[in-house]
Amino acid sequence: MNKQTVTIFWFRRDLRLEDNVGLFQALQSGFPVLPVFIFDDAILDSLPNTDPRVGFIHQSLAAIATQLQQIGSSLWIQKGNTAVVWQQLINEFDVNQVFYNKDYEPYAIARDKTINSLLAANAAAVHACKDQVIFEESEITKADGLPYTVYTPYKNKWLEKFHSNAPITQYDCAAHFSNFYKSTFQFPNLEQIGFVKSGIQVKPHNLTKIANYHQTRDFPAMDTTSYLSPHLRFGTVSVRKLVHWAAQKNAVFLSELIWREFFMQILYHFPRVLTNNFKTAYDGIAWRNKEEDFKRWCTGTTGYPMVDAGMRQLNQTGYMHNRVRMVVASFLCKHLLIQWQWGEAYFAEKLLDYELSSNVGNWQWAAGTGCDAAPYFRVFNPEIQLKKFDPEGIYVHRWIPELDLEYGQPMVAHAMARDRAIATYKAGIVK
User: Fold this and answer.
1) Is residue 41 in some structural domain?
2) PANTHER family this protein is in (predicted)?
């Protein structure tokens, strides 16, 4: 039996049909394009079956499947070991070429290396495309070719290169939709993948909120955030579209997108930051790491309204306001002297927009152990943060209904905790 010759496009962190670089190139390969998504056991096995992020991936794939159905095509979806699933594809089809968009995280790099070898052994050409960033790991470097480890010069170089290039290209995939492989593959329901629908849902994004981002971004009660971050994380929106919009509408929001790429290239060039301090001089800090203190932080029962409201928002919705993230992270590392890795792991479990490089980078920033981090003697005062950024208490009352009734006392006094943190850091820093 002759096998159908196809080009495969492998969906990963790019769950959209529009302005998708790898898909655009695949559709011009000269062979029918079979769109594929693999639910990777190596990732899913560590997640609870109610994880809302898996539900969002499934929902996004369903939207793609609906679009494909309208043009007589469908998604080929499997769950399992990635290499085993690819061997199944090779057995069923004559795979001429494979296109995918690059992922820069350590697990993805190792996985792709394995799959690339498998495909090469089966005479399939592989094309890895740049899609989820404007500039990837080695496109913004110092004059000597080494990566930047301080944000501001990285940002300046990024902006210089961005403005000196032609306008951002956006890729019209729809013009080539007729090149999809004609098929009617069954679309699995969430239960067939081993998951159930969560009560926590990803919210629709809203680009119009970017315009006043610089004025409103620090005030959690205003709820003026764009809710773009999960969509950017899973690629349901194009980073080129966002950067084009931000460059016209708001420089501060654009800076946040540049921070994302900065942390991505840090993780790529310094993968040890996943588990270790970027600044090794901080390796001697004597962390307290008290389990009971960590539990109170996780459950939002520290007695500090800004901290507790943030953690309760996270636990109940999968979101946390950016200003509040800084406050809760500083509190864990400085007030409670608990290692940043504990908080990073908890955020990884709960955040809908969890992105490895940014999560690690921001936690090390808060702890003072990362590149271009906050100095160790900078200790946020949660009470002052509350007065400055939620002066009427609207945000904290939203998440702490008992605030005016039987709300507990702070678990640790700020002045004592601040002095203890500074002394502990000072004693632990290797000269």
Assistant:
1) yes
2) CRYPTOCHROME, CRYPTOCHROME CIRCADIAN CLOCK 5 ISOFORM X1
Is residue 30 in some structural domain?
Answer: yes
221-224 LR contacts (CB < 8 Å, sep 24+): 221/390, 221/392, 221/394, 221/395, 221/398
Annotated catalytic residue, options 86, 158, 297, 363: 363
At residue 19, φ and ψ (nearest 5 deg) are 45, 55
Look up 322 and say whether it is catalytic.
yes
Closest of 233, 234, 198 to residue 49, by C-alpha: 198
Q: Is 260 inside a domain boundary?
A: no
Residue 224 annotated as binding? no
Of 131, 162, 190, the residue that ends a domain is 131
213 labeled binding residue: yes
From first to last of the 431 residues of the chain, give the pLDDT tens digit: 589 999 999 999 999 999 999 999 999 999 999 999 999 999 999 999 999 999 999 999 999 999 999 999 999 999 999 999 999 999 999 999 999 999 999 999 999 999 999 999 999 999 999 999 999 999 999 999 999 999 999 999 999 999 998 778 889 999 999 999 999 999 999 999 999 999 999 999 988 877 888 888 889 998 888 899 999 999 999 999 999 999 998 999 999 999 999 999 999 999 999 999 999 999 999 999 999 999 999 999 999 999 999 999 999 999 999 999 999 999 999 999 999 999 999 999 999 999 999 999 999 999 999 998 778 888 999 999 999 999 999 999 999 999 988 888 999 999 999 999 999 999 998 76
Query: Which of 18, 96, 287, 315 is labelled catalytic?
Result: 287
Beta strand pairing status for 125-129 and 33-40? unpaired
* 181 assigned ligand-binding residue: no
340 carries an active-site annotation: yes
Catalytic, 256? Answer yes
Q: Is the pTM of this model over 0.90?
A: yes
Q: Which domain holds residue 80?
A: 1-131
- The closest of 155, 160, 154 to 141, measured between CA atoms, is 154
Does residue 243 sit within a domain?
Answer: no
Tell me if residue 158 is catalytic. Answer: no
Q: Kindly name the residue from 91, 322, 349, 383 that is annotated as catalytic.
A: 322
- 331 assigned ligand-binding residue: no
